[in-house]
Design goal:
Strand order of the largest sheet: 4-5-6-8-10-9-7
Radius of gyration: 27 Å
Order of helices and strands: HEHEHEHHEEHEEHEEEEEH
Helix content: 40-55%
Largest sheet: 7 strands, mixed
Number of strands: 12
Mean pLDDT: 92
Structural class: alpha/beta
Number of helices: 8
Length: about 375
């Protein structure tokens, strides 16, 4: 009976260790993060609460191992859903590379990809979810195809340049793959859309011919959202960064080109930018356009030992930003190792005590039999 109790205690300890590391730890770590200071309302419009993340890289059937996929997707699911519960943002923007093999899989596999994504990152009623396209979703510029662009567009409605306005805050999502400027159909379409959005902002200021041009709810300089960062030489210009090694960036590979950066600045005159792609966090106080830019770390533990995301409160005139750290992978592994060792040692000690009692009992029985003969 005591051995059975010992096994039950060992099982209970293992379950508690599992529940802590796979459920509770996400809430404990994320509780250390808070919404940044609230900007003042503008014309009676409250600031918009936004959560931003990037590079989820859901593993595919070609290079993704089933256990790696299961582990990483569970981690991202718990982190995301815990954040939804704790922070309840009004809008969530995923800044590209939703998938890891989106440009390689066939249609059936892509449909399965989309279903998994919607289950892992479902949002409650009242929270908008916007997914921006990245190079792992449709391929780099030299490798993409209209078919790949179309199927991402069909499911996420975002493969060019689009404008999303929420209470006077204007978000412009840009397809970095289409910012090559070489005259290809994808690039020409994106530039045309960019100029159309530029016209909307000019008309918001009362400039130009504005007949049949959509009207802004409230004019404010836009917030640019894209997968590739604006042009910069490296992360040396970052006020804050967590890259383990600072390397030089190549135009059109790690960042968009100088020309595309300048074109966005000329046409949109943005006030703030968010990007991803590098898998590392970087905060630039003044980028090439002279505006603040945040490059987000990857949301996946497969790419980052210490993933993070951003909470921002944005009004038509101001913004405040808070970076939220997620559980550190090495810390979770350490907790598992230490917890397992403690469970084994305490179990062995209890087992040793049980065996000692069993020996004493057996010895007593033998002595009793000798006396009764």
């Amino acid at each position: 009976m005591k051995l059975r109790n010992l096994l039950l205690r060992l099982l209970l300890g293992a379950v508690c260790l599992l529940v802590f590391n796979e459920f509770i730890v996400y809430y404990l770590v994320l509780l250390e993060c808070q919404w940044p200071t609230k900007p003042l309302p503008v014309n009676g419009l409250e600031p918009v609460k936004v959560m931003l993340l990037s590079d989820t890289h859901l593993l595919g059937p070609i290079h993704g191992h089933w256990f790696d996929r299961l582990r990483r997707e569970w981690q991202m699911h718990r982190a995301f859903q815990s954040a939804m519960t704790l922070f309840q943002p009004e809008a969530v923007f995923l800044l590209g590379d939703v998938f890891d093999e989106g440009n390689w899989v066939n249609q059936k596999e892509f449909d399965s990809y989309v279903d998994r994504f919607r289950k892992l990152f479902h949002t409650p009623t009242g929270t908008q979810l916007h997914s921006i396209v990245g190079n792992h979703d449709i391929g780099f510029h030299y490798a993409t195809h209209p078919y790949l662009v179309h199927r991402f567009q069909k499911n996420f409605n975002n493969t060019g340049v689009s404008l999303t306005s929420i209470r006077g805050v204007n978000f412009v999502s840009i397809n970095s793959i289409a910012m090559e400027g070489d005259g290809c159909q994808l690039c020409e379409t994106a530039e045309k859309e960019l100029r159309a959005v530029s016209t909307i902002f000019k008309c918001g200021r009362g400039i130009g011919q504005c007949k049949n041009v959509p009207k802004l709810e409230e004019y404010s300089r836009p917030v640019v959202l894209q997968h590739f960062p604006m042009y910069r030489d490296s992360d040396k210009v970052c006020e804050e960064h967590d890259t383990p090694e600072v390397k030089l960036y190549r135009e059109r590979w790690e960042v968009i080109s100088k020309e595309s950066t300048d074109l966005i600045g000329e046409l949109l005159n943005p006030r703030l930018a968010f990007s991803g792609h590098s898998h590392n966090y970087c905060h630039v106080v003044k980028n090439r356009l002279g505006i603040e830019e945040y490059t987000l770390a990857s949301f996946s533990w497969r790419n980052k030992n210490n993933p993070s995301f951003i909470l921002a409160q944005i009004s038509p005139k101001e913004h405040t930003v808070s970076r939220c750290q997620m559980p550190v992978e090495s810390t979770i592994i350490t907790i598992y190792l230490v917890g397992s060792i403690v469970l084994v040692i305490t179990s062995l000690l209890r087992l040793g005590g049980f065996l000692a009692q069993l020996r004493i009992f057996s010895h007593g029985r033998r002595e009793y039999k000798k006396l009764t003969k």
